[in-house]
Amino acid sequence: MSDDVLTVTMNPAVDHTVTVEEPLRTGAVARTDDAKFDAGGKGINVSKYLTALDVDAPATGFLGGPFGRMIRDRLDADGVPNDFVGIGDRTRLNTTVLGPEGEYKINHNGPTVDEGEVSDLVDRVRERDPDRLVVAGSLPKGVTTDAVDELAAAGDWETAVDTGGTSLTELDAAYLVCKPNREELAVATEMPVETTADCAAAAQSLRARGFRFVVASLGPDGALLAAESGTYHAPAVSVDVVDTVGAGDALLSGFLAALARGEDERTALKTGIIVASRVVGASGTSVPDFDAVFDERGDVTVSVVSP
Ligand SMILES: O=P(O)(O)OC[C@@]1(O)O[C@H](CO)[C@@H](O)[C@@H]1O
After folding, report:
1. Which atom of ligand 1 is nearest to the CA of 96?
2. Residue 5 pairs with which residues in a beta bridge?
3. Catalytic member of 15, 249, 264, 295
4. Could you list the residue range(s) of the whole structural domain that residue 185 is in?
5. Is 92 helix (H, G, I), strand (E, B) or coil?
6. Residue at 61 is within a domain
7. Prediction pTM value
8. Which ranges constitute the DSSP H helices of the chain?
9. Does any domain span residue 205?
10. ipTM of this complex
């Protein structure tokens, strides 16, 4: 067995997205008919988006309890291949509230995972022997960044990682790419991240710590790519934003989809920008229409940034 891309989500979540018409008020009940449930967690989102982009990208990680069953059922129904390790504890539910004041996101810390479950996951990844591995999302209790390094070093695959700012400073293995947002870039480098040039310098300094590429998501300011050949910026595409949940996962998915097609890193950055622009136009972490995404990349202008 050999997958093109295998994603690992050690702390998946059912993503519960509710929309309310009125601002939330303490002591008042907010009622709504608009609620949805998606199979979520960063690696799972990457599998969903890559599958829709025609890349073979099964999802693995840990699932347990009723929300774990819900995620598996949902992925099966949506045709996203998956092969999770069952755990004794319960998978979490994360909530996004979309209201007139903006977006609130509440993430549960998630279950506790034991050592035996971690070694089952490493075995599962070895069995599947992917070309590329994506380890994304927070780590559940009981799991440290040593497990991320172990997964990255357990075979000859290239590994993409998106496990949070602090974790990026603790990783020792060699990685293909990491995808911090602006805040995570600041946490990982302790450098200023006010301007695009600041972010470029921070991304290059992070890259020097063992990442071939750093793809930094800058929200409305687009994204940066730090590579050996230089640092590149692509602006965000102007779209009506419904919510930003999953935008970073979409950026990484587009980047990896282009690499899977044998395209260069600048084209991969453009692809990430277009895929992310589609995802922010849909609510929750549902898969939007990706029709013609590869054709639209010509509309994205990439510029060189001098840190
Ligand atoms: O708590 P974590 O693991 O950092 O993030 C989990 C999460 O917020 O990330 C995804 C969006 O990127 C959602 O599907 C999910 O709820």
Report:
1. 16
2. 132
3. 249
4. 5-10+42-86+129-304
5. strand
6. yes
7. 0.96
8. 42-52, 65-77, 115-128, 145-153, 165-170, 182-189, 196-207, 247-260, 265-279
9. yes
10. 0.99
